[in-house]
Amino acid sequence: MNILYGVPGEGMGHATRSKVVIDFLLKEGHNVHAVSCDRAYQFLVKSYPGRVHEIKGFHFAYKDSEISKMRTFLLNFKTAPKNLLFNFAEYLKLKMDFHPDLVITDFESFAYYFAKLHRIPIISIDNMQVMDRCKLDIKISKEEKGNFRMAKAIVKAKVPGCDHYLISSFFNAAIRKKNTSIVPLIVRDGILNAKPSRQNHILVYQTTSTFAEINKIFQQLPDITFYVYGFNKDELCGNVIFKSFSEENFVNDLAGASAVIANGGYSFISEAIYLKKPIYSFPIKNQFEQLMNASYIDKMGYGKYSEELDINSLKDFLKHLDTFKENLSKYKQDGNKELFEVLKEKIKEVCS
Fold it and tell me: I need a labelling partner for 5 at 20 to 30 A (CA). Which of 16, 75, 91, 343 fits?
């Protein structure tokens, strides 16, 4: 079967989990081609030369460590005409050279509209649809209700009317729409093969805080070593060790960490939960999906949700690591087995 797979370029989480699914589909004998952009395209094209087509995508703009709605609008409005022309040219190439029997989209629009134009069955695989297709069981403040409504509206409008939606999630949520299934976390091979231990370091994955802010807070806890990824630099500052990215080192440091600190990005949180690492999460402001993830971490006792990174809430988090570890020990999943079984079933169902 010919399958077209759509992967967004914003953030690497979509790319790493899509690679897990693409690898499975190729092993099953399917002929898979993907469309993506930016870092995700560069990542995927190395693994699948000749199978990945470059497109242009949507980007977020930030100001003071939070998403700026106005800057995001202006950035994408400015580049829209050029990007549309680029994508239309790629569409024509695909139309002539590749004839999909099925489209799978990880919250990506190009492949979705390709399917709609050619009346091809579509399966959605992502974590975002939980906001629209399920009932959330978390408290949402008055200040965040506007962000929730906007996020839900975007999710609802992004890839509507798919034949089936597979939602990857670390928490259970009541499904309220048909053609929807919840599957466990999508875990890459490096994490599946990692051997967890509990060493005296905390792994920090951070791209929104400043270098000075990180140093100021973590050096107040001199008995703990902090491995910091996200600044793309190698530097030693007392007990704070900044590391440039290496997948092997990152996985080893994550597997050996006593805990992790990050915003609220789904993919990193998923890997931390799979390896049973307590999580201190401070979500990026104005990004409801991250707030939702952080809230469920707190609700399930897997760690602590904090509105920002500060020394007092961090100390409180560290006092309860054993409790978080005990709660995390109850989380169970058998690799990606359930995901693959459900996906095989739904492919047969929607393509029959």
Answer: 75
| pLDDT given for residue 60 in this prediction | 40
| Identity of residue 273 | I
Q: What is the pLDDT of residues 1-19, one digit of tens each?
A: 999 999 998 768 899 999 9
DSSP 181-242: EEE-----HHHHT------SEEEEE-SSS-HHHHHHHHTT-TTSEEEEESS---EEETTEEE
32: exposed, middle or buried (C-beta count within 10 Å: 0-12, 13-18, 19+)?
Answer: buried
What pLDDT does residue 75 have?
37
For residue range 238-273, list pLDDT tens digits in order. Answer: 999 999 989 999 999 999 999 999 999 999 999 999
170: CB partners within 8 A, 6+ apart: 184, 185, 269, 270, 273, 296, 331
List b or e across 68-105, with b for residues whose CB sees 16 or more CB atoms inside 10 angstroms: beeebeeeeeeeeeebeeebeebbeebeeeeebebbbb
Q: Which residues of the chain have pLDDT under 70?
A: 11, 56-96, 209
Residue 203 and residue 52 in contact, taking contact as beta carbons nearer than 8 Å: no
The secondary structure of 113-174 as a DSSP string is HHHHHHT--EEEEESTTHHHHEE--S---HHHHHHHHHHHHHHHHHSTT-SEEEEE-SS--E
Task: Spell out the domains of the chain, with CATH numbers in brackets.
Answer: 2-184+335-351 (3.40.50.2000), 190-328 (3.40.50.2000)
Residue-level pLDDT at 110? 87
**CB-based contacts of 185, cutoff 8 Å, min separation 6:** 168, 169, 170, 270, 273, 274, 333
Residue 173 is predicted with a pLDDT of 96
Which run of H or of E encompasses 85?
helix 69-97
pLDDT at 232: 87
Say which DSSP state 284 is in: P
The one-letter code for the residue type at 283 is P
Q: Would you give the end-to-end CA distance of the chain in angstroms? A: 12
Give pLDDT, residue 100: 92
d(CA 180, CA 342): 11
- Amino acid 23 reads D
